[in-house]
Amino acid sequence: MRLRSLRRRLPSRVRMTTVFAAAVALTASLTSAVPSSAGTSAPAAERVAARSAERGGPGQPEARDVVLAVHGGAGTALDPDHTSPAEERTYRAGLTDALRAGQRVLRRGGDSVAAVEAAVRVLEDNELFNAGKGAVFTADAGHELDASIMRGSDQAAGAVAGVRSVRNPISAARLVMDRTRHVLLAGEGADDFAARAGLPTVTQDYYWTQRRWDQLMAAKDKERGTRDGRGGGKDAGAKGADSTKGTVGAVALDGRHHLAAATSTGGMTNKMPGRVGDSPLIGAGTYAKDGTVAASATGHGEVFIRGAATATIAHLMEYSRLGVAQAAHQVLIKQLPQLGGDGGVIALDGKGTFDAPHSSPGMLYGYLTRDGRIITKIFPSESPANE
Description:
Strand order of the largest sheet: 4-3-2-6-5-1-11-12
Order of helices and strands: HHEHHEEHEHHHEEEEHHHEEEE
Largest sheet: 8 strands, mixed
Structural class: alpha+beta
Number of strands: 12
Number of helices: 11
Oligomer: single chain
Shape: globular
Strand content: 15-25%
């Protein structure tokens, strides 16, 4: 099978319907991390030790007075022993650039929806992340992207799934919310809608990166090895292990106290054509409601769908009166692992209280406080997995 030629081939139309419901309310406790600062050119171990976070008490959020937060995916985060100072700066700059884009919107009086869209667009244009330009490959060497956005003031929402020619899927999701009576458009219909609306379009080659191609080859090798009983090639594990799951997202609180959330992804490496995860599903990967929470998730999408992850966080806050940290901890650390998957979430309430619990070994994320301070976290020691 000649996969290099297949990456130019367009898979068949995606057709799907989505149904999900809210989950039951429970109580929980939380441990969190104290913010860390950006790194310099010190050796890796020293850089990490200098900003290693300390655990907080049960139910304590990570930060307060936050107006914007972004994530670049949950997974194993970055290995400090194999991350050069230059690579560290590149990842921190990617998160910081997204936060700055959203900050500019908020500073000029823009709303939270515009802020999360601006932040996610920057991440979609950065090939480090599994969204937009850096999207992973499907099993037939194509690219199918998903995104969603939600406004907390009236719970309006828009999403696209399985798009293959939109440069910035998050903007297509915004247009679905603003210009149609629907919430979710998929496949060719979503691509056509975005093109007619005037959004920039690209060919499949635009999304291609060598790193993602190598990951697909490693996944294929591992798949063949499993079928043959060989366990894959000797380098399959190393080549196939992605540093993060890569999904991106943002949450924001504007000057009028309105919340918004957005999520965008390329999905899973070697996924079946037509597979759709949690990122474009409102209540699973994305949720926002004024008075409760704005949340964007990253991780094992099928589990987040089955657990109605982000909607459950909101319902725990609204009906059980849990704080944002307690509710997010209950869902991410207690509920979802029992369903067989891991991941993380960035969650922001209407008072600027922020938390980022995750059951995966690490998560890439950053946040902006009301006074303009930016914090980024890319190493596991900066944001250890919650227990």
